[in-house]
């Protein structure tokens, strides 16, 4: 087995990664609001904090002294080893593991300092020592059974949970000074079973005031919040904690936490989590920076993320350029929307750069063809010629407006491709990318849809991300005619999402937040119109699924077609076609003129219909691969062959 020096080296061996910031870590159990520098997997979308990637490859842990524990990374489709043996939480994608004993702990528990002995316990008269073994025991204080690392009294042969052994009979709690809190081991039936400070579920030992029905767990009892806060962004005066009050937060407009910090002279009340809100941020749902306001102008405001009403008398984010755009504070700063960077004091000096220069009406000079000017043509007699391929996206011009060189005949580019920005902020990976022209013998795999093409590419500044122009120009929000009522948004998930178009499982998809519509990246850029040899007279249109009991058949492979999934059809002839049979996976590669390249694409004239050396079937797509090993009908066959 290969030995890696660092955890980061191990991660790099699994997938390509790139540095980023502000995403929920898949390598630890810290919450989704914990923002940090880190690295993200390109294919799976997994993100790891920088501090998690710097974890030691091998550790010796007090809870498992007999063997060393090694870092283990779980891929997106691999099963994890259950729960952490210390905290009983679900294991993340990165944890420590013993191959011999099937023992696993998460990174947070592995890094915590372990108390070997509890001296001066208020629960028991003798010192309690940690038993570094997983043994079944019953806690002498709370009476609950457990199988994890008790603290034992060697003189009395009694075992305790750590929290039980460290607890006291009663405490004087700063957030509830009116009465003492007594230690309880069973939750009274009249309570909601939650800590009044953090809202977490109460466990085997906690502190409670029966007069006020006030409970706190052990962690909140040990670490009470500060009573007074000074020098705050959210307010000009000091704020004092006033727990157990029903209120509406002036910063976010929510009423879900009964422990406000209050300014009595201003009648200002705010959540603890809303005190350090960022003033200027950039979210992926809007083109401009947005700014926090203590209140909005009077009127009917809708949130640009959740589309629900905004209480204009409370704080929210708004755009200075788009006067009708605003977002709830919590919606703007939630995981996947904000990158975690406060832009206050940072100048906005990186802007999109055009890829062309206007010479006169209908005439431009494009960066990819600087020697000559290009003239706009709305239509052309040769527009139906499949050989007229756009230099940028390698798709036939068909009936779209396009630019052609005024001096040479071999440079043609769609109008929409010519207008793509030379430099822009990418919606998928949230990185700055630059448009690069590609030479005909230079094929690359798109980092978003994983399809090979030799058209123009968007490449990230760090060189780790390469995307074709279709994926590189996906905006957010994304409007697709198959789902016209709602916008679609980029979604990164550690669990597979099923594409409604093809049924494939992906982790990076476009989703509708108001219904269960999911579209993977490759299907979002499928061409709406195509031409095929089986129907030379008409265009084939992309159909977005139909609910029918009628059986459909593919005109090309003559096999059954699922009408509920997307397919192509001819509106004139009534014929239907599988998407794969219609366009294959070579549609974005231009046929080569050079005979010395490894991947040589040849148009299929259907006269010979060569046999693929991989699947052993006759090639039925518009083109096929002519390689040193023989002829193959698709990239899929190439992957299976090698």
From TrEMBL:
Q: What Gene Ontology terms describe what this protein does at the molecular function level?
A: zinc ion binding
Q: Name one Pfam family in it.
A: C1_2
Q: Which Gene3D superfamilies match?
A: Zinc/RING finger domain, C3HC4 (zinc finger) (3.30.40.10)
Q: Where do the Phorbol-ester/DAG-type domain residues begin and end? A: 126-175, 178-226, 235-280
Which keywords belong to this entry?
Metal-binding, Repeat, Zinc, Zinc-finger
Q: Which InterPro entries match?
A: C1-like_sf (IPR046349), DC1 (IPR004146), DC1-like_CT (IPR054483), PKC_DAG/PE (IPR002219), Vacuole_Formation_Reg (IPR053192), Znf_PHD (IPR001965), Znf_RING/FYVE/PHD (IPR013083)
Q: Which positions fall inside the Zinc finger PHD-type domain?
A: 248-307, 553-616
Matching PANTHER family = CYSTEINE/HISTIDINE-RICH C1 DOMAIN FAMILY PROTEIN, CYSTEINE_HISTIDINE-RICH C1 DOMAIN FAMILY PROTEIN
Q: What is this protein called?
A: Protein VACUOLELESS GAMETOPHYTES
- Species per Swiss-Prot/TrEMBL record: Cardamine amara subsp. amara
């Amino acid at each position: 087995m290969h030995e890696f020096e660092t955890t980061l080296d191990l991660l790099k061996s699994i997938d390509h990664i790139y540095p980023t910031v502000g995403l929920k870590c898949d390598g630890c159990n810290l919450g989704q609001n914990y923002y940090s520098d880190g690295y993200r997997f390109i294919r799976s979308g997994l993100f790891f904090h920088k501090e998690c990637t710097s974890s030691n490859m091998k550790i010796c842990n007090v809870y498992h002294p007999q063997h060393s524990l090694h870092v283990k990374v779980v891929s997106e489709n691999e099963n994890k080893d259950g729960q952490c043996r210390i905290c009983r939480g679900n294991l993340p994608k990165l944890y420590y593991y013993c191959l011999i004993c099937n023992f696993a702990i998460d990174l947070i528990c592995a890094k915590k300092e372990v108390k070997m002995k509890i001296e001066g316990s208020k629960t028991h008269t003798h010192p309690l020592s940690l038993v570094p073994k997983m043994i079944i025991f019953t806690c002498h204080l709370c009476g609950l059974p457990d199988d994890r690392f008790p603290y034992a009294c060697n003189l009395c042969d009694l075992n305790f949970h750590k929290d039980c052994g460290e607890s006291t009979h009663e405490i004087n709690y700063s957030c509830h000074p009116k009465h003492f809190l007594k230690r309880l081991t069973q939750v009274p039936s009249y309570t909601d079973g939650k800590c009044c400070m953090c809202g977490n579920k109460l466990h085997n030992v906690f502190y409670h005031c029966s007069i006020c029905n006030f409970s706190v767990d052990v962690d909140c009892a040990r670490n009470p919040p500060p009573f007074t806060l000074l020098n705050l962004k959210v307010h000009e005066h000091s704020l004092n904690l006033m727990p157990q009050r029903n209120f509406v937060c002036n910063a976010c407009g929510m009423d879900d936490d009964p422990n406000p910090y209050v300014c009595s002279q201003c009648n200002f009340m705010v959540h603890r989590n809303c005190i350090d809100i960022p003033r200027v941020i950039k979210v992926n749902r809007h083109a401009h920076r947005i700014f926090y306001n203590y209140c909005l102008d009077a009127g009917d405001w809708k949130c640009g993320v959740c589309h629900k009403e905004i209480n204009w008398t409370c704080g929210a984010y708004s755009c200075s350029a788009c006067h009708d755009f605003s977002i709830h504070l919590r919606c703007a700063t939630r995981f996947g929307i904000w990158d975690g960077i406060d832009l206050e004091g940072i100048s906005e000096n990186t802007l999109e750069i055009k890829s062309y220069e206007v010479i006169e009406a209908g005439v431009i000079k494009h960066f990819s063809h600087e020697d000559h000017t290009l003239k706009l043509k709305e239509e052309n007699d040769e527009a139906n010629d499949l050989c007229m391929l756009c230099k940028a996206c390698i798709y036939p011009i068909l009936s779209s407006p396009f630019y052609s060189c005024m001096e040479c005949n071999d440079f043609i580019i769609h109008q929409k491709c010519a207008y793509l920005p030379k430099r822009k902020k990418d919606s998928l990976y949230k990185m700055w990318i630059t448009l690069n022209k590609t030479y005909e013998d230079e094929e690359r795999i798109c980092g978003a849809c994983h399809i090979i093409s030799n058209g123009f590419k968007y490449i990230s500044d760090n060189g780790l991300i390469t995307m074709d122009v279709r994926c590189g120009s996906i905006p957010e929000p994304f409007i697709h005619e198959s789902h016209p009522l709602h916008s679609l948004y980029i979604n990164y998930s550690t669990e597979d999402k099923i594409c409604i178009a093809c049924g494939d499982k992906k982790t990076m998809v476009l989703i509708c937040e108001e219904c269960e519509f999911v579209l993977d990246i490759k299907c979002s850029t499928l061409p709406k119109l195509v031409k095929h040899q089986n129907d030379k007279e008409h265009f084939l249109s992309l159909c977005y699924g139909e609910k029918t009991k009628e059986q459909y058949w593919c005109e090309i492979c003559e096999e059954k077609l699922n009408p509920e999934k997307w397919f192509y059809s001819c509106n004139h002839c009534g014929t239907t076609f599988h998407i794969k049979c219609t366009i294959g996976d070579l549609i974005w590669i231009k046929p080569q003129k050079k005979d010395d390249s490894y991947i040589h694409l040849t148009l299929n004239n259907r006269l010979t219909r060569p046999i693929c050396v991989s699947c052993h079937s006759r090639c039925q797509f518009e083109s096929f691969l002519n390689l040193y090993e023989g002829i193959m009908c698709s990239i899929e066959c190439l992957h299976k062959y090698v």
